[in-house]
Amino acid sequence: MSEERSSPVAGRVFYRYMSRAEVEAVVRTGKLRGGRPGRTYWTTDLYGSPTEAKSRLALEYLPEARLEFRITSEPGLLLAGTRVEPDEDEPGGGTEYVSEESVEAEVVSVDYLE
Fold it and tell me: Which stretches does UniProt call biased (Low complexity) (predicted)?
């Protein structure tokens, strides 16, 4: 008898705050970070400004866009809905998910932040 394993993220909608160039790479490849290797971060948090996203997610750069997406793969998770620690002189406090695996995604929408 086989066990059904449900993914904690597959099919759910999330956000990633990024540069315009990364948006283009995600749209082109269907993978977060454009399929580049390394840790991939995303969140369930919807922020209204790039400053707020940078602060709460402790980003090193001011994001230019917010990508709303649905995960279509089942990546292994290093962190799943944990609180962002302070870093990059930012307070953190947002919610983060992290995987070292490639994350396939269907783009729901893109909002360019101002």
Answer: 105-114
Q: What mean pLDDT is predicted for residues 45-72?
A: 97
For residue 60, the tally of other CB atoms under 10 A from its CB is 9
CB 104 within 8 A of CB 33: no
Confidence label for 72 from pLDDT (cuts 50, 70 and 90)? very high
Structure tokens at 42: 């995303």
Cα–Cα distance between 27 and 50 in angstroms, integer? 21
Hey, CA dihedral for 13, 17, 19, 22, is it positive or negative? negative
Closest-CA residue to 111 (of 57, 41, 64, 44) = 64
Per-residue model confidence as pLDDT tens digits over 29-57: 999 999 999 999 999 999 999 999 999 99
**Pair of tokens at residue 82:** 């944990």
